[in-house]
Each structure stands twice: as structure tokens, then as C-alpha cells.
Specification:
The complex is a heterodimer of chains A (493) and B (150). Chain A is mostly helical and 493 residues long. Chain A has 20 helices and 2 strands. Chain A has one domain. Helices cover 73% and strands 1% of the residues of chain A. A two-stranded antiparallel ribbon of chain A has the order 1-2. In chain A, helix 4 crosses helix 5 and helix 9 crosses helix 18. The longest helix of chain A has 35 residues. Chain B has 150 residues and is mainly alpha-helical. Chain B has 2 domains: 64 residues; 66 residues, no CATH class. In chain B, helix 1 packs antiparallel against helix 2, helix 3 runs antiparallel to helix 4 and helix 4 runs antiparallel to helix 5. The longest helix of chain B is centred in the first third of the chain and has 23 residues. The two termini of chain B are 46 Å apart. The chains are: A mainly alpha (493), B mainly alpha (150). The interface between A and B is large, with 63 and 64 residues.
């Protein structure tokens, strides 16, 4: 099998796609206003005609590159290129103010690489075991897993649990459209032929993540960002190396575990790693003044998320973050169903993804250290020209999946909805995760009841089911318990 | 934010009631096995419940947390104009053709956003449109010829 994987990955074609992906990713990530999710959504249509391995690795390259690329503008402009680099801007920009932006970028590049490699190792070690466990899941367990996934998404994404649930509910409701998978009854199609096969998932995503983001950019389109820094001395000094090697691997692990949790993406990974490094530091008061730990921790953390997010996606079909949700879309287009069976039926593909992701991280390191000056130039591409081009890419991308203009309409509709949701402080990710987890929850719920002939006791019949039930109750109850405890603490004090 | 929360909750409640109304017309459960309407009703009820929770939380919200949502400033109006332009583009695209509509759309937006000289806007737009046309049309084999022009 090893030989097969090596043969599959070590081809010029795959290497080219990975390099292209990482390069595009860094460019997209470094431009403020273009997020990693948007980048992956925009590149996705290019993979429709490709085979599975190069297609997925191209997207993973974009993902890895974009999460790293966000740090470039965070350090130089104090504007994080992606939300994932928001924590990096705190200390990174202080370096630039002192004229040490090269040093900061070097630390960020190497920490991102270490974080990424740690997460790929975790992906390699954990997912086959998790897939084996998931093979023992039946309809009730999959239903409860989906419910757990949805509850955790609702509780951590965004500021309000109620808004998270509303948005997740919207996603699930959209998934009802089309012919019911169990009875064959058409639901919510309103007599429209285009809706019979259900709401196309990819146009909804391009709309919510790319188009709505482009609309937000239009708000500030007449203000320009300026980069005046010259980047020199990228290679870290000996004392910086010590900090990187001490901080980045730990942050990478923290990021990986946050990535595994459905709904928690790279921005949360970066912030948790940052605050963890601060808490265990001997000099926490120096954070925010431009110290190497302040870059190594969030950058190790956000790239740590990349591998972690793929773990539940590949093993159970539950996306770890919004990008993983798009990757599920990409796999489905290829006729592959993410889940435990992927590990038994498409073993070569799975291990090619692991190896390819490692190569993507190495590519990121090499490109980062060698071509930073080029990526800094990218920052001066005006968004006033880029944004209209993104409109075109969104339109063509959503048209390309089924060569159908109805899908373009769907994309535009959700682009507009997504813009207003952002305005009302409703995070859009739960909708997309709901769109994926909704059918998983529904079909397994009904299949379980078919198995038990209508008895609900089947949901409490196995230990795995109980684990998911307890986890769900814990997740939904946690915010209320902590606020109650805090209130009591205040009263006593 | 208070007003925005009420609108969000209201829209979602209306949406959920519509789901329930439609789902009630679907075939019923059979021997305890749920029919096609049961899950939509469960989810719609969950939406209504969360919307009510949101309304209550908003009523309790302190005045200090009540940040203003900007929906009328000049910058936001620019977004509305952009949206309207794209809707027009979407309506013309299948009927007129990709290259013509896309080039015109790009020229107008780039001119408006960047205030560059006309010839630069036109050049950038034509080059980008052709690149996309050939990338999708020839390399990726997506049928890109439609409409009465090209």
C-alpha cells in the first residue's frame, strides 16, 4: 500500500497542483478581505473535472497556504488577512513598528510549518483509529453524532447560542428540499424542477462565504491599505529558534484538538494557543508588545487546526470547520462519501491526502522563506480591481458545477442573505454545517426508528450512544452553568 | 442591534411557521416510523424556540450592549447598488452571453471602485474575461457559449 501511495503522490502533476494550491492560498490569505474559506470555495470549481487526489490536494494546498498567508498582512498592516491571523496581529504589528517585520514573518513561517506538521502527524495517527471505531456506528449512533456536532457548532460559533441554533436550523431546513431519501416524497420543491434533486450545496457555500465577503469589502472599497515596509532578515536568530521550538509544537497540538471539535475553526485555534502561551509564560505582561512567542503561538495554533479539522471530516463525515465542509462538497462531487468506509474502500486516497498535506506544509515553508518579498507585493493589488473579479469567479464557479443558471441565482441570493446575516452578527458557518449534518441526522434518525419499529429506546441502547448524549447535554448546558456559577461567585464575593 | 435581533427572530419565526404549515400536508407516520414531514416540524419548532429565546435575551440586553447596526450610511448604500448591478448582470448573462456582459460589468465596477482611466479599466476587464472564458471553456470543458452574442 505504501508504494501505491508514493506512486500516487510523487508525480509531477500532483506536485504542481500542491505548489499551485499553496501559492494561490498564500496570495488569497495575505489579502485582507479574502478568507481561507473564500479561497477554497473559489478554487473548488476548478477541481470538478479533476481526479480525486489532485483535486483534493489542490484545495488542501489553498487551505494550508491561506491560513499561513493571513499572517503576512497581520504583521505588515495590522489587518489580519484571514480571521485566523487576528491573534497574530497583536504582537506581529509591534515588530513592524520597530522595523523588524522580516523577523516576525520568519517566525510566523516556521511556526506555521511546525504547527501544520504536528497536525498532519496527528491526522495520520488518530484518524485510522477513529475510523475503525466509527465502523461500529449504526444509524442511532450516527444520528446522535450529528446532533452532537450540531449542538457544538451552535454553541461555539458566534456570540449567541440562540443565533447559532437559528442559523444551523436554517441550514438543516435547506437540506429538506428535494426528494426525501427514504420515502421518495418530494418536499419543499414548490413545483420547481431544479429543486427536485435538492438545494445545491456548493452554490450556497460560494454565496455565503465568498460573495457575502466580497459585498462586505465593497463597504470600504474607497480606502486603500499601504505597505511601506521593506522585508529583510527573514531567517530567525538562535534565541528566536529557541522560542519557536518551545512554543509552536504545543500550539500545533492545541490547534489540532480545536480543529477536531466541529465548528471551531482556525481563528479559535489561534486565540486559544495565544492565551495558553500567555498563561504559561514567565513574562505574560510582555505579550502584545511584540515578542516572538506572540507570533509563534497563534501561527502554530491556526495551522494546527488544518489537520485537526480533517480528522472528523474524513473519519465520520462531520466537518471540523467551514473549509472541511467545502472539502466534503469536493469529495461528494468526485462520488466519494466521507466517513469510515473511505478508509476501507479508498485507502490509497486517504493516505495520499495525508502525505500530500505534509508536502503542502513543506511547500508552504519553502515558498514562505524564499518568496516573502513577492507576497508582500501582492498586498498592493488594489481591492477595487480584485473585488469585481471575485464577483465573476463566484458566478462562473457556481454555474460550472451543473452548468445551470438556477445555481447562479441561488449563489447570488445567499450572497445577499449572508451579507445581512453578518450585519446582524449571525455567523454563517452553522448554516453550511447544518446543510451537511441535517441529512445525516434525519436519515439516520428515521433509519434507526425503522430498525426499532418505532421504539425510541434504540437511541439509548449502546454505550457509544450514551457518550454522544452526555456530550450533547454537556455542550448545550455548559454556557448556562458557567454563567450561573459566575453570578453566584459574584454574589458571594 | 436590538432592532436587528427582533427582525432576525421575526423572519425566522415566519420561516418556521411556513415549514410547519407545508409539512403538515405530507404523508403521516407509519407504524411509529416518521414520515417525510416529521423532521422538518421538529427543526421548525427548534427554530421557533431559539427565536423566542433570542427575543427574551434581547429584551434583557443592557443599553451598553445595544450597538448600532449600520444599514443606511453611504458605504452600505454602495453595497446595495453593487447588489442591484449584479442582479441585472445575472438576468442578462444567459440571454446576452458571457464575454459581452461580463466585460461590461467589470468595466463599470472597476471604473466606479478604482477611478482609473477608462482605457485601463477596459483592458483589465477584457483580459480577465477572456482568461476566465478560456480557462473554464477550453481547459475545464464547461460550456461557456450561450446567449445571442458571445
Amino acid at each position: 500500500m505504501l508504494l501505491e501511495v508514493l506512486n500516487n503522490v510523487f508525480t509531477i502533476q500532483i506536485f504542481l497542483f500542491i505548489i499551485m494550491g499553496v501559492f494561490t492560498g498564500i496570495c488569497i490569505g495575505s489579502l485582507p478581505g479574502l478568507t481561507a474559506t473564500m479561497g477554497v470555495a473559489l478554487v473548488l470549481p476548478l477541481t470538478f473535472g479533476m481526479e480525486a487526489t489532485p483535486g483534493i490536494l489542490l484545495l488542501i494546498g489553498v487551505y494550508v497556504g491561506a491560513i499561513y498567508g493571513g499572517s503576512i498582512s497581520a504583521i505588515l498592516l495590522r489587518t489580519p488577512g484571514t480571521p485566523a491571523a487576528a491573534a497574530t496581529a497583536l504582537d506581529g504589528y509591534e515588530f513592524s513598528k520597530r522595523g523588524e517585520s522580516g523577523r516576525a514573518l520568519g517566525i510566523s513561517t516556521i511556526s506555521s510549518f511546525i504547527g501544520g506538521v504536528v497536525s498532519v502527524m496527528a491526522l495520520w495517527l488518530i484518524s485510522p483509529q477513529l475510523a475503525k471505531l466509527a465502523l461500529r456506528f449504526n444509524a442511532p449512533e450516527f444520528f446522535l453524532l450529528a446532533v452532537f456536532g450540531l449542538s457544538i457548532i451552535a454553541s461555539i460559533s458566534g456570540n449567541s447560542l440562540a443565533k447559532g441554533v437559528l442559523c444551523g436550523g436554517l441550514g438543516i431546513a435547506l437540506s429538506f428540499m428535494g426528494i426525501d431519501s427514504i420515502t421518495g416524497y418530494p418536499r419543499f420543491t414548490f413545483g420547481n424542477i431544479n429543486l427536485l434533486s435538492g438545494m445545491s450545496f456548493i452554490p450556497v457555500m460560494i454565496g455565503l462565504f465568498a460573495m457575502s465577503q466580497a459585498f462586505s469589502t465593497v463597504e470600504n472599497i474607497f480606502t486603500a491599505d499601504e505597505v511601506s515596509q521593506k522585508v529583510t532578515k527573514v531567517w530567525p536568530t538562535r534565541s528566536d529558534w529557541k522560542v519557536i521550538l518551545k512554543t509552536a509544537p504545543v500550539s500545533g497540538l492545541i490547534g489540532t484538538f480545536i480543529g477536531i471539535v466541529p465548528g471551531a475553526g482556525a481563528e479559535i485555534g489561534a486565540f486559544v494557543s495565544y492565551s495558553q502561551a500567555k498563561r504559561f509564560s514567565k513574562h505574560p505582561e510582555l505579550f502584545g508588545t511584540g515578542i516572538p512567542e506572540g507570533i509563534a503561538a497563534p501561527e502554530g495554533g491556526n495551522n494546527g487546526v488544518t489537520g485537526g479539522a480533517l480528522i472528523p471530516m474524513l473519519t465520520m463525515g462531520v466537518p471540523g470547520d467551514a473549509v472541511a465542509a467545502i472539502l466534503i462538497g469536493a469529495l461528494t462531487v468526485q462520488g466519494l462519501q466521507p466517513g469510515p468506509l473511505l478508509f476501507t474502500e479508498h485507502t490509497t486516497l486517504v493516505y495520499s491526502i495525508f502525505l500530500g498535506m505534509f508536502i503542502a506544509n513543506v511547500t508552504m515553508l519553502i515558498l514562505g522563506l524564499s518568496s516573502l518579498k513577492f507576497f508582500v507585493k501582492i498586498l498592493s493589488i488594489p481591492k477595487s480591481i480584485l473585488t469585481p473579479m471575485i464577483f465573476v469567479l463566484c458566478v462562473v464557479g457556481s454555474y460550472a458545477i451543473n452548468t445551470n443558471f438556477f445555481d447562479v441565482g441561488i449563489m447570488l441570493f445567499f450572497g445577499i442573505i449572508g451579507y445581512f446575516m453578518q450585519k446582524a452578527d449571525v455567523s454563517v458557518s452553522p448554516a453550511v454545517l447544518g446543510l451537511i449534518l441535517g441529512p445525516m441526522a434525519e436519515s439516520n434518525f428515521r433509519r434507526a426508528l425503522l430498525m426499532s419499529e418505532g421504539s425510541y429506546s434504540i437511541f439509548f441502547a449502546s454505550p457509544i450512544a450514551w457518550v454522544f448524549l452526555i456530550l450533547t447535554i454537556f455542550t448545550l448546558g455548559m454556557p448556562y452553568v458557567t454563567s450561573f456559577l459566575k453570578a453566584r461567585h459574584k454574589n458571594i464575593a | 442591534m436590538r432592532k436587528a435581533n427582533f427582525i432576525v427572530a421575526g423572519v425566522f419565526i415566519a420561516f418556521a411557521i411556513a415549514i410547519i404549515a407545508i409539512s403538515l400536508g405530507y404523508p403521516p407516520s407509519n407504524h411509529g416510523v416518521p414520515g417525510p414531514g416529521m423532521f422538518p416540524i421538529i427543526i421548525a419548532s427548534l427554530i421557533i424556540f431559539s427565536a423566542v429565546v433570542l427575543i427574551i435575551a434581547t429584551l434583557k440586553m443592557k443599553e451598553s450592549q445595544n450597538t448600532k447596526v449600520d444599514l443606511t450610511s453611504k458605504n452600505v448604500v454602495n453595497v446595495y447598488i453593487t447588489m442591484a448591478g449584479l442582479v441585472v448582470y445575472f438576468l442578462l448573462l444567459p440571454n446576452v452571453g458571457f464575454i459581452t456582459t461580463t466585460t461590461i460589468m467589470l468595466v463599470l465596477y472597476i471604473k466606479w471602485f478604482s477611478k482609473r482611466p477608462w482605457w485601463k479599466c477596459i483592458l483589465i476587464s477584457i483580459l480577465f474575461t477572456l482568461a476566465i472564458f478560456f480557462l473554464f471553456g477550453s481547459v475545464l470543458n464547461v460550456p461557456m457559449r450561450y446567449g445571442f452574442l458571445i
